[in-house]
Amino acid sequence: MAQTISGFQGTVSAEHEAQRLHRVRPPVADKLSDFSLVSSASGRVITIGPGSATVCGVRFTESADTSITLPANSAGATRIDIIGLRFDWAAGTVTLFSKRGTTTTTPPDLVRNPGTVYEYPLFGVTVASGATTISTSSIKSMLAVGGFGKSPFRINATDWAARIEIPVGGRIQLGSTTWEVTDWSGQYTTTQQVAIDPGPWPSYTPTLRAGNNFTAVNLGSGGVYRGYHHTENGYCHVKAEIRRGTSGDNMGVGFYSMDLPATPADGFTDTWGDGVLFTDLGGAMTWPIKILIRPEFGARGRLYAPTKGDDARFLPQGAIQSGGPGNGIPYVAGQNSVPKIIAFDFTYLIKG
Hints:
- The chain has 352 residues and is mainly beta.
- It folds into two domains: 131 residues, Triple-stranded beta-helix (Sandwich), CATH 2.60.520; 147 residues, no CATH class.
- Helix content is 3%, strand content 45%.
- The protein is built from one helix and 28 strands.
- Strands 17, 18, 19, 20, 21, 22, 23, 24, 25, 26, 27 and 28 form a twelve-stranded antiparallel sheet that branches.
């Protein structure tokens, strides 16, 4: 058995303290605008603006612009360099550094030893062979901020995001896209894209359609469609409400289907969602109903309801308004089987 332990009562070295703080809080800058690119001048001179960062428990602030010159590239091929901040515990210094890459696709490895030397990346730079000036479009941010509590780490660019140290399980966000870190090699993160919580649920219209032609019904005066959906990790949760109006409605002929906010995935042949139907013709009645979701249906689900009050078998729900009373599902004696209210709350797997 070989063990390494720190943190019990006694003297805690600066290295041990830095290691513990590194585990508690990954290195981050204060804002995405910190250490921003100011200019790229002739001679491969890169100027970086002020900023603040906390790395392994060391708090660092630079209040003035600083410049660094990248070495010439005479290798005959493009290389990828890194510009960053080098934290040196023995010297008690933080210095701006550049590290030369050797390939056109891979930045150089960084030293990441909390408590001794830790190299915190700011930019990945593509340096063309023979270049005397580097275009600003070739200089990509490697900054990360945030990550407090359940909040994601936020970045400015994805080009070299795999070299940003984020703990396994952490999430990285750029715009509306979020990735979850599944592995960290010491130099590279491995990530998978995940859906992001959109905050308030986006709205959508759960249009009710009748017949094989999927004709949208007319809810009439005062009719209401109300739908919301929430997508995360490949699943879509739906809340939908449909209300027939007070007059002028035409609920169509044939069996009902309802629009979905996204196309279902191919993984499940049948997915069933639960809902409630309220009918008001022939007396107020409440019925359990279901929606069948299949990949072959596309972004629609087909509605099913009990056959009638004393027959619990589920059949495709429909109102045959032009065919006379008593011909719909659910069967209502002497009445058309038109819904007054339909409400659903269900979840299904969607295409990625």
